[in-house]
Q: What sequence folds into this?
């Protein structure tokens, strides 16, 4: 099973991606994580990518595309969930070309839809529990609102991640994501058109619901096929 997942920062893409990964036992190929590993490992690739990442810019396609295609070859033989790639039209076209050339099927493309303002609010509302980062707390999401000033799960102290409060950085990332001419939404729509021609299957999910209701919808859409 080979799956692509799209969703803006703040849409819950990580959570839904985990569900897919576990259900089908997929290799999780996440472009941002591969870059971070290379940076901490001090590799040539990491050195080349670091300045772009620090600025919140995309790493150039000449570096990113071969990196992802090589990783798919090396780690994706038994199915993959590709996350964070493609981020623009060029990457989408190159990926599709490479899959066709290798005779690989793209089983599903999942897009989590969320209005830009909601995504931004969610990121800025995230709170981290000092005892456990996985305790969900968000001052703008009713279902996981903190208990006053403290963690809703364990009562631990809450903090924020500095990049979650950097409005400029959030806007820059969302500018790329919501660009439907050449950016990430354009890449997602490229696959939607392929789905219309029967070349893959496209599942669009409304990201405004609760985590559980989105999970349920995703599972039922997968099972229907
Ligand atoms: P992420 O963890 O997905 O937010 O990615 C972190 C950073 O890695 C991004 O802000 C980009 O600088 C870089 N990056 C990740 N994926 C890509 C991609 N597909 N194309 C170009 N740059 C990327």
A:
């Amino acid at each position: 099973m080979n799956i692509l997942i799209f969703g803006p920062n703040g849409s819950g893409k990580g959570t839904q991606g985990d569900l897919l990964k576990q259900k089908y036992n997929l290799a999780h190929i996440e472009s941002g994580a591969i870059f971070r590993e290379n940076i901490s490992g001090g590799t040539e690739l990491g050195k080349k990518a670091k300045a772009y990442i620090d600025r919140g810019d995309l790493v150039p396609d000449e570096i990113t595309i071969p990196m992802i295609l090589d990783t798919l070859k090396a780690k994706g033989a038994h199915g993959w969930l590709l996350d964070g790639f493609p981020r623009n039209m060029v990457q989408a076209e190159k990926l599709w070309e490479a899959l066709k050339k290798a005779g690989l099927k793209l089983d599903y493309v999942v897009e989590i839809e969320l209005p830009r303002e909601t995504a931004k609010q969610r990121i800025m509302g995230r709170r981290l529990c000092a005892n456990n980062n996985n305790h969900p707390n968000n001052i703008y999401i009713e279902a996981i609102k903190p208990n006053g000033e403290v963690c809703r799960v364990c009562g631990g102290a809450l903090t924020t991640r500095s990049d979650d409060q950097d409005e400029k950085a959030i806007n820059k990332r969302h500018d790329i994501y919501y660009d439907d001419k050449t950016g990430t939404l354009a890449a997602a729509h490229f696959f939607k058109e392929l789905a219309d021609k029967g070349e893959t299957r496209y599942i669009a999910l409304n990201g405004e619901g609760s985590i559980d209701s989105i999970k349920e919808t995703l599972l039922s859409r997968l099972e229907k096929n």
